[in-house]
Amino acid sequence: MSLAPETGSPAWAGGAAAAPLGDDGAATGGVRLSGVRKSFGHLDIIHGIDLSIPEGAFTVFVGPSGCGKSTLLRMIAGLEEVSDGLIAIKGRDVTDLDPSDRGIAMVFQSYALYPHMSVRDNLAFGLKMANTPKAEIDRRVTAASAILKTDHLLDRRPGQLSGGQRQRVAIGRAIVRKPDVFLFDEPLSNLDAELRVSMRIEIARLHRELGNTMIYVTHDQTEAMTLADMIVVLREGRIEQVGSPREIYEDPANSFVAGFIGSPRMNLLKARRTGRDSLTLADATLGAPFPTASGKSGADVTFGIRPEHLTVGQTAVDGRSLTASVDFSEYLGGTQYLYCQLADGQTVTVEYRSPVAVRPGERIVLSWSMETIRLFDDAGLRLRQGM
Amino acid sequence: MTVVSNLSRAAGRPRPRSSAWRGLLYIAPAMALVLLFFVIPVIMTAWMSLHAWPLMGAQRWIGINNYIRMVNDTRFLSALRFTALYTVVATIAIFAVAFPLALFVEKQRRFVGAYRTIIFLPVVVGLATASLLWVWLANVDSGFIGPLLRQLGIVERSPNLLASFDSAFLTIIVMVVWKIAGFTMIILLTGLQAIPADIVEAARIDGAKRWQRFRYLTLPLMRRTIALALIISVTGSILAFDQFYIMTAGGPQNRMISVVYYIFNQSFVSFNLGYGASLSIVLLAILVAISIVQLWLLKVGDDKA
Q: Does residue B286 belong to the interface with chain A, where contact is any CB pair within 8 Å?
């Protein structure tokens, strides 16, 4: 079951799992998963994923470690068997096909270059296995190394390359195969921070130039936000939300997505509902952002607000402010993060841009505008107006 | 700043000398053993080989006469030929059995630990013990193989396996494979396990079939391991002695006398210690030469993977 978007334009939402393969206009050319399941014995790793990835989209699977994102990618690649369900690429059922027959290419976290072959042979290996004529191999290898600017490295061994160069070669090996779908398994996590940023831009450029469908797995939400056309947030083998980066950030479906995407993370504060349109949080009575029809008085809710939506002041605003004491602060130049404590001990992170210094121990008033509040019920699901 | 640089200079300068001494100290025990049990005996053997050296009585300097004698010694040349034949056949047989076994026990499957243990078990038996065991197994009347063949109706009369050259040679090869293949398998297994799984997966995506992956990835990536296993196997075969001494005592018509057996005969049966020493030196030279050629053929050392 997917918790696929309740709002937005769910062109890719996999609700209609029963739709026959290839019959789904938007996703004919892309990748389609229906009821995909993976279990080891009695242990379920992937719990029935339904997802349509449109052709040409850059899709990022993101989630904490152990959420099954890499397993799902490897199932699409054909490196892991599918326990149940169907995988289709370009309208073709590939569930039981060999990895090489699926029209995919994969870039591994460890690069997985063949250490005993030159860069040229690494790039050409797949084509040689497919008995491609030599002239064609040369043409494609030259073209790929021109795109990735690795021409001067062609005669070296992988052991003689830097991490960034190896990653380029690994991507080049994928390009040479001319796949329908590129699969990236945390390709940047072995690189240092600076190189990671430049390779990220490189991959975005590559997607723009080639226009292929790309599926990218990462636990780094910055990579997810910057690269994706479409983000799939996974947790414990289930899809938590599917949507564009903006939708995921601004309209999270539940408190997990809200807390996972965004850095520093959204403040998720324990609160209690006291009436149709009021809450208590840390002894203060606050106005609810919207009247709740079904809300029981006394129910626990989670009050979510992002650090950048909190305004620091001195005077309380009735129903939409809290007092807090500053524990410590981080100065980042353009901005400053204040780590504060509420009256009941809950911690709040605040983004603070004013040049007026705030010292640890100081008492401040945090206020907000109502539309920036996200409320979640005690199961973590988003509460919306009219529910 | 000056304090820091003074300190580092003070600490830095004397270190190379003292750490070099400490390094020597660490390798001293190993060096002593090598010196005592290899270098000195080799020098003494080389010295002996230049003498007519009977067990009792005075030794006499004869220069390189022992080496000259060797060239015309037909029994030595036939021992060399037999050892070469045995080495080639045994090594091929061991690899032909050990490589599939290594591939078999490399995969994670049920009871794989038990398989590995059972296959490795004969390795821990001493070679002499194993030879004695197989002498009994090959016995015409009270053994196992012959009577079994008869009971199964394959032969009419239980054959005397160790009586003819071909069947004795075959029996010894089978015994050696049973005894050694487990060891070679373990060496090859370590090489197989050192190949990263994602390289194999990348090759699967690149469309390499099982045989192609073996040919283009497994074999080249196992080059060092194969070189090691090959050198151990070849060296062991060239030095073979126990099985011929115990199982066939030189074989039907003295056709199973290996080089080491011949050296033993010359030194401790005929008491030509000087001649035995010169044969040993030549055998050492042959072993060194073969190892160099093998390492060169497998190009160990230039691989900067």
A: no
